[in-house]
Design a protein that fits this description.
Blueprint (H helix, E strand, L loop, with lengths): L1 H6 L11 E5 L1 H11 L9 E5 L8 E2 H14 L13 H5 L3 H12 L2 H7 L14 E2 L8 H6 L7 E7 L2 H9 L6 H12 L1 H7 L16 H27 L3 E6 L28 H4 L13 H20 L22 E5 L5 E4 L4 H7 L4
Parallel strand pairs: 1-2, 2-5, 3-4, 5-6, 6-7
Antiparallel strand pairs: 7-8
Helix pairs in contact: 3-5, 3-6, 8-11, 9-10, 11-14
Length: 364
């Protein structure tokens, strides 16, 4: 980002009109730029698609457990308890050896438990940012609460089926509801898990008693993504800048291709994590016969226009597509959200359960 500020003019760019943009892990990076002290002033706007803000990052000691195991598995750990990893050894390893060592380290159950103690669900992602130091002094949600975010415009949102992407990938067989209750105890702690199960959307008695993956998935969708991301919208509003929040809800007619790219088969039926990307970029998968219907052509045109207008003007409405709706800025007084779907774009409100998740907190 510093390099871009120094050199963008040589490429015909404007250092005062930089927008950063990311999805999933990329959105996590954008979120860190928004709260990192060293990133202040390096961009004027930011886009976050599906940032799991409710996920806690590891501290240095937790991350070091994986690092030590990786070094040992790579054969680069000298003998002696105080010995540090041999970096020359690591640098000289062939790529395949590095990959094998990380694969073994990321599967280490002991490291998983010790580095994610008290918040085991977050261990789903083995490699992630580390809290502590100059780049990320604290958890992003904590820094947002301290008004440490950049005062820039933001466009952000999540998909209606974020949770199934992860839960159905990790739990491939039906999750009996008695085990669901136990899983919530492990993930949230005994007090909070009891509260969660009283919410209709997460109630283990609200559906098929032999499979509580839908309830667990909905919890992850709301807690990690939809409600967690609202913290960035709230911070922007409090700082006096604009935030534009969306929820993507459409199931792509060509969603049968998603399992070919690593998503679970449930993503053929719900708007999973990353399923908005074909529409943001106007790119189906013609080689696999996954092309847009006429209604989907309209939706992708609207979404691309919103995104492009935001990048150019820090406002999605300046050059929005003909026939699309005015996208209101999110304000604490109304909490308006744009719902992206093919039957008609419409304006709604922030998930009513976000107040519940704010009371639970994002520090489990």
């Amino acid at each position: 980002m510093q390099w871009v500020q120094r050199n963008i003019a040589a490429f015909g760019g404007d250092k005062d009109a930089v927008t950063i943009w990311g999805e999933s892990a990329g959105a996590m990076s954008v979120g860190i730029h928004l709260v990192s002290p060293g990133s202040q002033g390096l961009f004027r706007a930011a886009i976050q698609e599906s940032n799991p803000v409710g996920m806690r990052y590891r501290n240095r000691s937790g991350a070091a457990l994986y690092g030590a195991t990786f070094c040992q598995d790579a054969g680069c750990q000298p003998s002696g308890a105080a010995a540090t990893c041999n970096m020359s050894c690591l640098r000289n390893l062939p790529l395949s050896a590095v990959q094998d060592a990380w694969r073994k380290a990321s599967d280490d159950v002991v490291d998983y438990i010790l580095s994610d103690w008290g918040h085991f669900l977050d261990g789903i992602l083995e490699g992630k940012p580390t809290v502590g130091g100059d780049i990320l002094p604290a958890q992003p949600v904590e820094l947002l609460a301290q008004a440490k975010a950049s005062n820039v415009s933001v466009l952000l949102g999540s998909n209606a089926g974020e949770g199934p992407t992860f839960i159905y990938d990790a739990v491939k067989e039906p999750l009996p509801c008695i085990l669901y209750s136990l899983a919530l105890d492990v993930v949230l702690g005994f007090d909070d898990s009891a509260k969660v199960q009283k919410v209709p959307a997460y109630d283990p008695n609200s559906g098929n008693a032999s499979d509580c993956r839908p309830q667990f998935s909905q919890m992850v969708t709301d807690w990690w993504f939809g409600c967690g991301l609202t913290n960035f919208a709230r911070a922007a509003d409090q700082a006096g800048s604009s935030s534009f929040v969306y929820q993507y809800e459409h199931v792509f007619s060509g969603s049968f291709v998603f399992p070919k790219f690593g998503l679970p088969t449930v993503c053929e039926h719900v708007a999973c994590h990353a399923s908005e990307l074909p529409f943001v970029f106007g790119n189906g998968v013609p080689s696999l016969n996954a092309t847009f219907t006429p209604a989907e052509q309209v939706l992708t045109g609207q979404m691309r226009a919103y995104w492009a207008s935001f990048i150019k003007h820090s406002d999605p409405n300046v050059e929005r597509a003909q026939g699309s709706v005015q996208w209101p800025a999110w304000k604490a007084s109304n909490e308006q959200v744009l719902h992206l779907q093919t039957d008609a774009l419409k304006i709604g409100n922030t998930n009513e359960l976000c107040g519940f998740w704010d009371s639970i907190g994002y520090d489990h």
